[in-house]
Amino acid sequence: MQFINNLLLDMELDPRIVEYLSIIIKVLLIGLICIVANFISKKIVIRVITRVVTNSKVKWGKIILDRQVFRKLSHIVPAIIIYSFSSIFPNYQSIIEKLAIAYIIIVGLVFIQSLLNAMNDIYQTFEISKVKPIKGYIQVVNIIIMILGSILVISNLIGKSPLILLSGFGALSAVLMLVFKDSLLGLVAGIQLTGNDMVRVGDWIEMPKYGADGDVIDISLNTVQVQNFDKTITMIPSYALISDSFINWRGMQSSGGRRIKRSLYVDTSSITFCTEEMIEKFIKVQYLSDYIIQKEREITEYNAKNQVNRDNPVNGRALTNIGVFRAYISNYLKNHDGIHQNMTLMVRQLAHSEHGLPIEIYAFTNSVQWDVYETVQSDIFDHLFAVAPEFGLRVFQNPSGADLRNRVEESNNNALLGERSY
């Protein structure tokens, strides 16, 4: 730099012009050095690092490259060069050094943030990330680093110690708690959610208050993202999962079975004792033959032991079509390929209502997939609706307009026939 000054002075120019030209040339030279250094760091050094990482067997190397960790760190080189040459501008040295240091701190913050995000991406490649997500903690660390970095930048620019700013930090704590209220609540909620293993990425949760019914796709510091089954995204505050109730279907998914709990309503007027003809018919049914033989033996022995007069069907014990139907359903389910045989399987009769007598099926499918579950459930009830009349039973249904119209037409036809006969 002294050589440039001497060269300009030898040209016998005005000292003021020499001074300005010297500054301009020095700035241009420093800028050229920064450009060359930046070119070398990005086009040569980073390319070499990229090639080494790409060719290596380290799985997480590509994640670091995608996050551009090294590229963001390379921005620190021009700032270091400018800081190193600040002494050639004595009048502006202090300002240049402060700006260079501030830029170095900002680049360092960006680098640390990218590195932390890369660490989170690397962590998500492991299965434990679904059970113990750390994204919320990463975000908290980012906030703390950004606050500390901002304090360092401000203290550097004003030329004061960071401790002076930190000493006044307590006075701002109330304001900061108000500003970062959601983040603080989210941090506490994230610790509880993770520590108690309440929610994982991939869990199916249901939270009607927020209109959420789908799979958890992301757990962050402030929100939990749920992709509903209609492909919409619902954002739930993290602390809401602690303060409010929700359903997590993980237990069902991990059990290997999904519950069927549905009733078939039988018209009570169709319930009757089994006749000999009905018993002969039922004994030929595959799922009823053993049951009918066993029950007939038990009933015969009981009636003979108690000398029951069976001339009146009210006396003693007898089979009913509804009882045989329940036995048929139970045996049908026990031989169904879609029903989980190691879980609860029950066919029960619920309390009678104005809609008839409910026969409830309580069982579990051997698949938790939604489409398979619905198919199995539909196939079972398709069969039961079709087979109920074979037992002399009618499935209850409120009369429709067509039923009333047919009844009126039948009545009118009967009336016409009566008039003609008269």
From TrEMBL:
Transmembrane portions of the chain: 20-41, 95-116, 137-157, 163-180
The Mechanosensitive ion channel MscS C-terminal domain sits at: 331-392
Q: Which Pfam families match?
A: MS_channel_2nd, MS_channel_3rd
- Which keywords are on file for this protein? Membrane, Transmembrane, Transmembrane helix
Q: Which residues form the Mechanosensitive ion channel MscS domain?
A: 182-250
Which positions carry the signal peptide feature in this UniProt record? none
Compartment list: Endomembrane system
Q: How does it sit in the membrane?
A: Multi-pass membrane protein
The protein's matches in PANTHER family, at most eight in alphabetical order, are given as: MINICONDUCTANCE MECHANOSENSITIVE CHANNEL YBDG (PTHR30414:SF0)
Q: Which family does it belong to?
A: Belongs to the MscS (TC 1.A.23) family.
For this entry, the protein name equals Mechanosensitive ion channel
UniProt organism field? Mesobacillus maritimus
